């Protein structure tokens, strides 16, 4: 009988109830809120769902992220090996390959001024960088945090890994992906605040047709120019443009389908769950994390406002031919930010169709955020 009681006692003490802290329970609640937002509200479910589930797993069973040195048998936890591919910049680069295969750069090619709008929206990144330094973060940490302002999760993870800020990678990535998911909530109030009803109702002329030759040359030229100026951007910009070249060349349909479907979804699962698994209570519930989340929000808002204000400037310069709302799409949350520009414009005039015009700054923002990351790597000699 004593053996039975000892066995039952051992089994009982192996349950998670005896090992979890109050912080773990808090993070489990947070994970459930994220799951609700992903499933019930549809906020970027492809990203938020695996991130939330990774968060749930690591706070129930922390050893799922244990490194080999922390285990008795020398074998690390499952998600530890997924996470290594984040640190080595493998998964963020593959995400960019898939994004490139799914992206139509036609609106950007047809209206090159979109590059300026995409660049203007990166102002939030550099503003957050200086604010982060003022709050006590070192230069590399401030740079990694500031990229959240581009609402670009893969670039945030990529830069944090390159700058050796793996300890901050979890909060940075979760903040970046959270703000990507919350674009429809965060952006509209600031877009409306900075524009008039007349400006929001501006109808833009149809974009010119873009030839296949232009579409093929674009990724090649961008790769050559950007990577010659900032070679450190090659993993991100190179993979983005390679995926787009697959798409536009028309001769590798199988590679295009694989990069934009099967490979993309596999990488999203690995990236999302591993990022979520970095949010253990010990790593996440501290003042640095709170500051990172606030800084990311500030950077994202400043980027949205800078893009919108530059759109207003171009509106004045062109005599009212550019709707300022498309400037807010310069943050690189593709295609959510462009959809928000369309939605806000349609609220003033249901016949106004801004989506394709907003896609230009939106995809320019993807390139712009990668370039901003490359600038930081060049500054710090990475």
Describe the secondary structure blueprint for this structure.
Blueprint: H1 2-13, H2 22-39, H3 45-60, H4 78-87, H5 90-102, H6 106-110, H7 114-120, H8 123-134, H9 139-146, H10 153-162, H11 166-181, H12 183-194, H13 197-200, H14 212-229, H15 234-249, H16 253-276, H17 281-284, H18 287-317, H19 336-348, H20 355-379
Helix pairs in contact: 2-3, 3-11, 3-16, 4-16, 5-10, 5-15, 5-16, 7-18, 7-20, 8-9, 8-18, 9-10, 10-11, 10-20, 11-18, 12-18, 12-19, 14-15, 15-16, 19-20
Write a brief caption for the model.
The chain has 382 residues and is an all-alpha fold. It has helices at 2-13, 22-39, 45-60, 78-87, 90-102, 106-110, 114-120, 123-134, 139-146, 153-162, 166-181, 183-194, 197-200, 212-229, 234-249, 253-276, 281-284, 287-317, 336-348, 355-379. The mean pLDDT is 89.
The number of helical elements comes to 20
Number of strands: 0
- The SSE order reads HHHHHHHHHHHHHHHHHHHH
Distance between the termini: 64 Å
Largest sheet: none
Strand content: under 5%
* Shape field: globular
Helix fraction bin: over 70%
**Integer-rounded radius of gyration:** 22 Å
What features would you describe in this structure?
The chain is an all-alpha fold and 382 residues long. The protein is built from 20 helices and no strands. Helix 3 packs across helix 11, helix 10 packs parallel to helix 20 and helix 12 packs across helix 19. The N and C termini lie far apart (64 Å). The mean pLDDT is 89.
